[in-house]
Amino acid sequence: MIPGLNLSSVNEFFIVGFENLHNFRVAFFIVLFLIYTATLAGNLLIILLVSTTPCLQTPMYIFLSQLSLSDIILTSTICPNTLLVIFNDGSTISKVGCVTQSVTFSMSMVTECLLLTVMSYDRYVAICKPMRYVTTINFTFFLQLIAFCWASGSLATILATILILDLDFCGSNIVVNHFFCDYGPLLQLSCSDTSLLETVIIIISTLETTIETGFIFSTYVCIVRSILKISTTTGKEKAFSTCSSHLIVVCMCFGSLFAIYVSPSGKKTSTMNKILSLLYTVVTPLLNPIIYSLKNQEIRITIKKRFNKLSQILT
Question: Which of 58, 78, 79, 110 has CA atoms 20 to 30 A from the CA of 285?
Answer without folding.
Answer: 58
